Amino acid sequence: MKPEIIIKHLGYVLFLNGIFLFISFLISAYLNETSSIPLLYSAFICGIFGLFPVLFVERTENIIFEEGLVIVVLGWFMTCVAGMLPYLMWGGEFTLANAWFESVSGFTTTGATVLNDIEALPKGLLFWRSSTHWIGGIGIIIFVLLILPQSKGARINIFHTEVSDLSKMNFRFRARKIIQILALIYLSLTVLETAFLMMAGMSFFDAVNHSFATVATGGFSTKNLSVAAYDSLTIEIIIMVFMVLSGIHFGIIFNTVSLKSNNIFTSSLVRAFVFVMFVGIIVISIKLYLSGMFSFPNALRYASFQVISLGTTTGFATIDTANWPIFTQIVLIYFTIQCAMTGSTSGGLKFDRVYILFKSIGKQVRLLKHPRGVFVVKINDKPVDEKLEYQTLVFVVLYVVTFFTSTFILTALDVDAMTAFSASIATIGNVGPGFENVSSLGNFSTIPDLGKYVLSGNMFLGRLEIFNILALFSLKN
To answer: pLDDT tens for residues 385-418?
Structure first.
């Protein structure tokens, strides 16, 4: 591997972060806030360390797969290091562990927070916090690939590391075209949601921040009570619609707009994804109503938002689910494990893998009945390669082992079982809220510092899909 290639691309990553930090500084300076200097210093540091490699390291046309892997993994790590700088400089609740946790949570679009008083943050810092979602939602590396004049081979080797094989199944374009489609859909959804939220009564600042968080399926809000602070059914419906759209494969959304065949209305995978969420909403609504907690219309309202929020890994909240019946919490935990579709801004396990898992179980049952039969797992009437099917099953096992391991570590740190279990699942799924001490309107401030670092590792594994991390450590040179 050539270190200069890696350094140059990490420079691009840092410089891009510096641009967003400078925009946040301009907001803070205009409002004469205490965060202006920390944001300016952070922008300067990222700009300098990013610009030097960009200007003085010679560009290389050929990038091998191993170099692409290192660029992706280290690019995400360096981004999170850059993201914590303004938090540390500003102070407040931001200790080293808290600043790292909040930065990783933002860029991986997890949306878990350690802050007890979000509204105490200056607007410039709030905007930076939401920007980490928006940058991380589409992927910092995708941003870089979009603006770089890379050769075909270089772009493909980096792109294949950042985008999973499952995600590529619904794309029939070359890497550059896919990147442009991702950016177009991402920007369009952000602009549209911002406009709708403003029409529903949100201020421009809050609308932009919540759009950043929704389209990135992140969940950072500018309010302590999240979306519940607005107590507006109209706002909730708008956010629910855009959460669902952001949880669907962007290639399928593009096909829908382009009037192509594999679209939202014809995709069996999309139908299954929406149907499972619909069943979850109805089941939880009935249980809440029968428990006497709410009238059925209110039960339906709260259940719909929470199921869609967790099922798309967004993590917004309109009510505290900590006191809900244990049955409803278990159903919500399932959606925290399931996550949204590949090719969306969701992290975590992905609905597609769950879909393939159950299809594979059905295939094995049929093989028991008909040992000589030939059965194929299909998605949208297209056969899934057996290699990809096997990879999916291995990934699911690794995923489960990972969140059980982090649960074990948290309980060893004297975190109660429900908090440890749900926090582990919520962070590796890049969902955000769990239950008990980390419930939908709670935060992660009570988790010990070591536990915060463990959960930050979960967020990385969920966003980078485990195999990339394992592959990085398996490189020989």
So the answer is: 888 888 888 889 999 999 999 999 999 999 999 9
At 382, give phi and psi (nearest 5°): -110, 130
Which residues are within 8 A (CB) of 434 and not within 5 positions of it... i.e. 6 or more apart?
336, 418, 419, 421, 422, 423, 425, 426
Q: Which of 129, 162, 195 is the last residue of a domain?
A: 162
Q: What is the separation, in whole angstroms, between the first and last Cα of the chain?
A: 7
Instruction: Spell out the residues 6+ positions from residue 420 whose beta carbon is closer than 8 angstroms to its own.
Output: 406, 407, 410, 411
The domain of 154 spans: 1-162
Higher pLDDT pick, 331 / 177: 331
Question: Total structural domains in the chain?
Answer: 2
Q: How far is CA 47 from CA 9, 138, 139, 467, in A?
A: 14, 21, 19, 31
Question: Phi first, then psi: what are they for 114, rounded to 5°?
Answer: -105, 0
In the numeric block, the tokens 């339906």 are attached to 300
Which helix (H) or strand (E) segment holds residue 383: the answer is strand 382-383
109, 135, 162 - which closes a domain: 162
For tokens 């594994």, the residue is 461
Query: Quick check: is 169 in a domain?
Result: no
Is residue 11 pLDDT above 50, yes or no? yes
pLDDT digits (tens, 9 = 90+) for 56-91: 777 666 667 677 778 878 888 999 999 999 999 999
Instruction: Answer whether residue 58 is part of any domain.
Output: yes
pTM: 0.90
pLDDT digit string, tens, across residues 114-167: 999 999 999 999 999 999 999 888 765 454 454 444 444 444 443 444 444 544
**Residue 292 located in a structural domain:** no
* Residue 225 lies inside a defined structural domain of this protein: no
Q: pLDDT band at 444, cuts 50/70/90? A: very high
How many residues are present in the chain?
A: 477
Residues 6+ apart with CB under 8 A from 285: 296, 299, 300, 303, 304
Q: Which residues of 417-437 are buried (b: 16+ CB within 10 A; e: fewer)?
A: ebbbbbbbbbbbbbbbbbbbb
